[in-house]
Amino acid sequence: MLTTPRLRLRPLTEADTDWWVCLHADDEVNRFVGAYTREQAAARLHDIQRQWAERGHGLCAVELNGTGEAIGRCGLNWWEQFGETEIGWTFARRHWGNGYAAEAARTVLAWGFGTLGLTRITAMIHHGNEASTAVARRLGFAPLREDVVLGRPCTVHALDRDDFAAP
């Protein structure tokens, strides 16, 4: 479990299926990450649990320290086809604009570069997702290449361990 002054990050499990579906049901939230049926969510969460078991990292539920309310997700995802570890974040719309994405991501980056010893982490951001691009820039990411992820064009940003300013 990772913590910040305001947030707690814990590994996602299949028990989070209903919450995952709800998070991605908002059209503004799923505009770049897609919506999920319950079956799709369960399969995705199964893959996340497998990644935790096999690689020692994966996506986390982000919860408010004071209430335990799950407000989003953030964590590391291994992309076999790219040979890259990516950081990703998605938050419920009512929690946008509070700095939670940058706060959670900075903590995940510190853990990835420090504890896990990763040398580079990418952020694959779909075209038009200006909010995520701004978070990535704030964290020190720079554009690396253009690519296609899940059938949609994106800019892959990268951050090397030596360029990361730990919290």
Question: How is this structure best described in words?
Answer:
The protein is α+β, with helices and mostly antiparallel strands. The protein has one domain (2-163): 3-Layer(aba) Sandwich (Aminopeptidase), CATH 3.40.630. It is built from five helices and eight strands. The protein has helices at residues 17-23, 27-33, 38-55, 100-113, 130-139; strands at residues 2-3, 7-11, 59-64, 70-79, 84-91, 120-126, 142-149, 152-160. The chain has a five-stranded antiparallel β-sheet with strand order 1-2-3-4-5. A hairpin with a 2-residue loop joins strand 7 (142-149) and strand 8 (152-160). Helix 1 packs across helix 3 and helix 4 (100-113) crosses helix 5. The longest helix has 18 residues, at 38-55. The chain is globular, with a radius of gyration of 15 Å. The two termini are 17 Å apart.
| N-to-C span | 17 Å
CATH uppermost class: Alpha Beta
CATH architecture call: 3-Layer(aba) Sandwich
Q: What would you call the structural class?
A: alpha+beta
CATH superfamily: Gcn5-related N-acetyltransferase (GNAT)
The succession of helices and strands, N to C, reads EEHHHEEEHEHEE
What's the story with the biggest beta sheet? 5 strands, antiparallel
Q: Number of DSSP helices?
A: 5
Classify the helix fraction into a percent range: 25-40%
Low-confidence stretches: none
The tally of strands reads 8
Count of domains: 1
Chain-averaged pLDDT: 94
